[in-house]
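so im writing up the methods section and need the Spore cortex-lytic enzyme record in one place, dumping it here so i stop losing it
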Amino acid sequence: MAISRNMNTDAAYNCLIAAGATVYGACGAMGNIFAESGFNPRNLEDLCEERQGHKYTDDTYTEAVDSGEISRELFLHPMGDSRQYGYGLCQWTSAGRKAGLYDLAKQKGVSIGDPAMQIEYMISELQSKYRSVFYVLKTAKTVQEASDVFLTKFEQPMDTGSGVKSKRAFYGEQYYMLYQSENEKEEKPMSLISNSGHDENGRYSGGRAGDQTGTEWALIPWYSRPWKCVLRYPNSAVRAKIAELAVKAAKNDLVGYDQSQRDTYWQHLKASNYDPSQITVACEADCSAGVIANVRAVGYLLDIDALKNLKATYTGDMRKAFKAAGFLVLTESKYLNGPDYLLEGDVLLNDGAHTATNVENGRYSGGTSGVNTNTGSGSNTARNNVSDGQKWLNSNYGDKILKYSGAKLRVDGDYGDKSRWAALAVWKDLMNRRYGTKLDPTNKNFFESCKKVASKATVSHGTQGTFTFLVQFILAAKGFYFGNMDALCGDGLTAAIKSYQKSKGLEADGYCGANTWYALFN
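--- predicted struct ---
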């Protein structure tokens, strides 16, 4: 089977890139997926088909699982014993991993062979149980590097020898040629969406209230879900307000993701003047609950009855309800396959699966965005890393920085007193909101009182979020960190922490705890 592009490969590539993978990382993973299943999400391991006596094909097996003819238990153990066989894009094999796949399909009400659901499950595994693999995908500088770790630590087949590594990396290189050549034809500007997708554990329920990692509800690059339609309100002022609320919700770490507590966001939004930035109590939404709540809030803010009384309840009925409330339903491919023709406030929808809010005007849309969403892109030089850090802080905490220090940061790559103060103000503010401390963000000093509570914000290998980003920012400024500004503590940041600790006479354990925080800010 020849390597080629199709909807499944495009979806996997776009989702991996949106999650933070480099082009090399995405293509290295995709080469492995091709080797496992040929990118067929319904693929049943051939050996299982043979031992089933050819009772099932890929399609009839999938349909039998969907209908219940094959029970959950039999899906986990296809032969009714301890033998295990693979299924799906990644050929998930063990009972535990297949259980997660099965449960997600049932939870979302889609086929076990649904490619979008399987790609979502793969990303959630990478972000939770396979973080070391995910770190390599996000930092890889060659396809071989990414392919090898995806093979040996994520797929884990019986044979991981040099021949298998070479073959899978070759597949990955073919995808790299397909996708990278397209990227080189035309450099497309990044466009952001406000996306509520998972809890701090990469799951859909069971986490703590609020955004523990800064990624539960966040501003991320546009990606192909794929989207089935775009819901657009005709009035530009309404769209701008929808985008504004979506950005504010993404920036407030008190707003997280949990399907079992999805209505608490709306409750606190109502109690906070319909302004997500004013929410002061940890709460939860999910993708549809968040979008629907924001649109209703706009109805109250702009006194539009149709929006106040929006009848939508989940992704499955949003198209009909939004249309009844006055939204246009756009289904042309130019609106679904990229952000170029989107307007701020457009609602992206995959019926029954996912929704998000576009917050910037596309380059061919004819609109002018009024929402401030600038973010950093990552760099390998200290000065560029500091610039990216300044952009990121302005984008995600600009209101806090303005409140406590009087002005947003000048993005110049210089880490002076203002950048240090901004970082410290964000650190103190987050400590107060997350842990109930009573630190003064307007004070430029990191006193012993700060040091006493700093262990609550320990950064170590595998942690992610704002505290981790601040360590990257400061260590980049001090000349110790040159990796990606991705808010993830991987091998590179851990090594940088150890080097800095050693330079300060601290125990070089790679943990940024109380003593290391004290040194960083003093």
